[in-house]
Amino acid sequence: MQQKIELLAPGGDIDSIKAAILAGADAVYCGLDKFNARNRAANISFADLNGILRLAHKNNCQVFLTLNIIIVDNEIPALFGLLNKIVNTSIDGVIVQDLGLFYLLSKYFKSLKIHASTQLTTHNHGQIQFLHKLNATRVNLSRELNHNEIKALTAVAHQNNMLTEVFVHGSNCISFSGICYMSSLHGGNSGNRGRCSQPCRDQYKTTLAGKDFPLNLKDNSAFSDLRELSDAGVDSVKIEGRIKKFHYVFSVVDTWRKQLNSFFNNDKVSTDKSALHKVFNRDFTNAYLTGNISADMFIDNPRDNSALHLSEAEGFTTDQKLEKAKGDIYDERTELITSVENKIKLLSIAKAPLLVAISGEYGTPLRVSVLSAEKSFEVFSETNLVNVGTEPLNEEVLLKRLKAINDTEYFIERIDLDNLQNGVYLPFKELTSIKRKLLFILNDSREFVDPVDVPVINKKPGIKSKPTLAVLISSQKDLWLCNETSATIYFQLPDSFKNECRKYIDLFQKNDKLIPWFPSVILGEDYIAAVEFLRLLQPGTIVTDNSGIAFEAFKLGIPWIAGPSLNIVNSFSLVCLKENFNCSGAFISNEISKLQLKGIKCPEDFNLYYSIYHPVVLMTSRQCLFHQVTGCVKDGIDDACIPGCGKSASITNLKEETFIAEKSQGNYHRIYNNINYLNSDILTDFPDLFTGFMIDLRDIKTETKIETDKPGVIRIFEGLLSDDFKKEPERIIYPTTNIQYSKGI
Description:
Helix 16 packs parallel to helix 17. It is globular and about 90 Å long. The protein folds into 3 domains: about 220 residues, Alpha-Beta Barrel (TIM Barrel), CATH 3.20.20.80; about 90 residues, no CATH class; about 220 residues, TIM Barrel (Alpha-Beta Barrel). It is an alpha/beta fold. The strands form 5 sheets. The chain has an 8-stranded parallel β-barrel, surrounded by 6 helices. The protein has an 8-stranded parallel barrel with strand order 15-16-17-18-19-20-21-27. The protein has 25 helices and 30 strands.
């Protein structure tokens, strides 16, 4: 008998949730109107949530609420208002990305189970432990992992009493989730806010490789990989699709339910994906799971591939036959839509009505009798009714005091006062006690949680001294800059240096002014090498864009600074890092605007940093981008590609926006903006907030021109920080952008 695996389905609206339940989902994940990473979905209102919970739980289906975006400070009061309601529902878990929200849930809403979103880019052991310390009970692993990597991480999760879930069907992102800023920079639609406009799927001018959609991946399908996922110990298989319609959800969930049942009951795994090909898809690939990252993962067309697949499967080659296939697909979908629509109409998300009978007379306890279709019970006051008081008990007073019941899976349909003596009183605290007793029973023996006020952060006073300057380099050819400036020098470590660990230890030992900077993605053996590097070098401080390395530094007692790719945008994230991981400082994300920055409160004994000038990395990919851009002699990525390959090319979309595809030795493929980020306004806008500013002088070729050498650039920014001269860097460095500083997220 195989270990049961949860089937987790998307619910972008009420009909999709009903469809998932009908099709046999073990759990659904859905978002409310705010604070979730699918703002383009219809989502649901809080008024509907309790009815959905009631329907789902009656059908042995759990409900997880998505709160999986980064949250700015001025939204925290509204967030608390929502959390104060959610905590008194029967929600089975909340899905979270923002570190500040992790902190708030762990400290003030402890009854809520926390699930770590895929937006946290979890791909190494240290990240699992980082999330465990934040009280996560499960983690959605990065989509780019293979079976062996999933198995290793699941073992660590289980050792820490955490569950793992893996996306098994739906869209593939070309970038590691959570560190893609392409949509954010171009249009102000941040993927970390659920507004991704998917510029990666846009049409581009035909590339040298002859492709019009060079960043467009096929959809993910692990349908035939169920046995391997089970062997890896995965606890939940997750279907993507909260912007898909109910018939899509039903069909995919139903197909996966049958697959899981066949595996559990008969130890058989089907390879028949015909049902999955009949709903929207961009063709399918399981290449990440198998570790076969190749050119075959791309499809040069972002539209629905269903009809084309059917046409090819039946040997059709003419346009006429393709049109017939389209007609067949349309007819099948129409039939499916009608069938599912008729079934979901029979499912109700109405809350259960309650008849509440109030009885009692002077000198006796107040009795409250509750009757519903499913249960009946009574509760009594602990003191007797009296004939003097502030307000006599009547329908208005009682409905006001018991209105919290209407925020559960029930509502008061009628209140009966026929057996209540006129002119009797009960202290308000007694009515509150009765309310809590009623809620305890109605909420399946869960204690009612009183509202929590937004906590106040004890911020440190404004910085009086001049902020310092730091310079980021990544080449040993630039080490001479250490002798040219008093600025701090950060050295960017490559994504992969598993075979060069000793070399980099020697580098830092010989250049004690250098501070190691760890990248955002550190996988497998490279993570093991990075931990060994930390252990042997014991640096005085580090900067890291990877939370797994942050955890290891914390464990080793090494001071560390959170890098900008950790997406820090609110004050409680700073408190979280300081209190939980002894973090000494953090870079504030460049995604947020001047207005959003104004809400940041820096905790005492903590430093804030900001990258004032840098090439803008828009995405980091485990895939090879050059298959589709310039072509590559290899069909796929092998062991020599990451350490040895170095290429650069550009792509331009039909809006005439150009992007730089770059692959440097030792690093994953990246897309950069065509011009660099420069924001000198922040120096005058926030003179007392930041401890230091950074400029990035790595050799990343973009269209930005610099009319001086690197020491000259450093001198310009040193002068800017010290007020010795006011020479504007924009005159020397151009063209540049700081559009995110005005638009924000």
